[in-house]
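Hi support team,

I submitted a single chain yesterday and got back a structure, but I'm not sure I'm reading the token output correctly. Could someone confirm the output below corresponds to the sequence I sent? I've pasted both exactly as they appear in my results page.

Thanks,
R.
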Amino acid sequence: MRLLYSFLLGVFLSFSSFAHDMTPTYPKLELSYMEGLLVTELEVFNKRNDVKYYEVGVFTKDWEPVPFVTSFKIFKLEYLERVRFSVYIRDVDKDRALYICSKSRTREEPGASTQISSTICSKIVKDDLWVD
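Hi R., thanks for writing in. Yes, this is the structure output for that exact sequence:
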């Protein structure tokens, strides 16, 4: 039994190396300088030396995509680098948008072993912007 616990602990600890960070965890949408758009700022930190590309997406509570605008939906990020970016969501979509996610994009190469993809999501904070 002790061997099993040691094995499971090793497996769980190794998974932490297959992740990246996205902050803040609970972003808040604020009024943008552009009419009809709300904005929030996020930051992604690449802790994976095997991944250089990440994709951003905005989703509903049922994981349906929500239209959004950002400087780049797929971006290159070297190991141990950070990127800060803004996400713009239409005012008409503010009630539907719940998650902003970043997903690692792995390259498929012939003969390469399967790589693990990581997805990190931040939950949008609903506040006084939603009072009509």
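A quick pointer for reading it: The CA atoms of residues 50 and 79 lie 8 Å apart. Let us know if anything else looks off.

Best,
Support desk
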